[in-house]
Structures are given as C-alpha cells and as structure tokens.
Amino acid sequence: MNIDEQNQLVIKEELEAIKADIIAVYNASGKKVSGEFEKGLEIKYTPTSATLTGYVYLAGRVAGRMPPIAPIEKWLIQKGIKPIEDKMKISTLAYLIARKIGEKGTNKENHLHIYDEVITPERIDSILERLNKINVTAFVNEVTVMIEKLVQNK
Predict the structure, then answer these.
(1) Are 38 and 23 in contact (CB under 8 A)?
(2) Model pTM greater than 0.85?
(3) What gap in Å lies between CA 154 and CA 150, rounded to an integer?
(4) pLDDT 10s per residue in the chain (154 long)?
(5) DSSP per residue over the chain, as a string?
(6) CA distance 34 to 45
(7) CA 124 to chain centre
(8) Burial of 123 (0-12, 13-18, 19+ CB in 10 A)
C-alpha cells in the first residue's frame, strides 16, 4: 500500500468514526425523533478529497425565513404533541410554530452543537498525528534509501 492509499485509509477510518460518534451523541441527546438525521449524514470519498455532510439545523435556525411546515407537523405527531384547543388541527399548530420560527428563530439555549462536541481540536490533532506518522515514516525511508545509494556510489 503506497503512502497516498495509507493516508486515504486513515481519513476514511477517521470520518467513519466521526460519523458514528455524531450519531451516538445525537441519539443520547434526546432530540431524536424521525431518524432522518442519521439518514442524512453522508461521507463522500474521491481520490483527492473526503467530505462529511449532514443536517445543518441542529444548531437552530435564525429568524428571517419560515421553515417547511410538513417536518414540524411530523415532529409534533411523533412527539405526541397536540394543540391545547380541541378545534385546532395539528397542521395549524405546525404552521404557527413554523411562522414563529421564521419570525424569531429558535432559542439558542436549546441548540445542539453536536459537530463541535465531536470534531474537537484534540480530535483533529489526533488525526493529523496519524497522518504525520505515515508521512514522516515514508520521508525517512526515502532519505535512508537515498543515503544508502550515495554511500554505495562512493
């Protein structure tokens, strides 16, 4: 396995571990409802890059744009939340919640900063350390081979 393949393997392993940890923290948070979050987390690999994409609203929404009503209605149903007034439909409650989020955003105290919890500076350092070991070892091996060739040519 060449150095590029080794680096790609480390990055793939680390991204898979990050994804698993993000899901574990999310599931432990008590915010899990539909399972859409886990389905939305995706790792894409190419020979030159790897990216982790996922749900962006865990950290909340800012005011200015009303979110879609259907997911809020689904969430209300899954959580068993019903309107206080008997005549109000669940779809009306979902609309009112969406409108309020659009006007005011969501409460920052309730936001889940899951990516910050999992992808820490220490974790990044650990990943870089793994990659450095591979690259430094390869560099030292190349220099050793070059020195040996120079010594033999004397």
Answers:
(1) yes
(2) no
(3) 7
(4) 788 888 888 888 999 999 999 999 988 887 777 777 888 888 888 877 778 887 766 667 778 889 889 988 988 998 899 999 989 999 999 999 999 999 988 877 777 788 888 999 999 999 999 988 888 888 888 888 888 777 787 6
(5) --HHHHHHHHHHHHHHHHHHHHHHHHHHTT---SSHHHHH-EEEE-SS-EEEE--SGGG---TTSPPPHHHHHHHHHHHT---SSTT--HHHHHHHHHHHHHHH---GGG---HHHHHS-HHHHHHHHHHHHHHHHHHHHHHHHHHHHHHHHH-
(6) 27
(7) 14
(8) middle
d(CA 66, CA 43): 29
Q: Tokens at residue 113, please?
A: 């900063």
Query: What's the token pair of residue 133?
Result: 């070991």
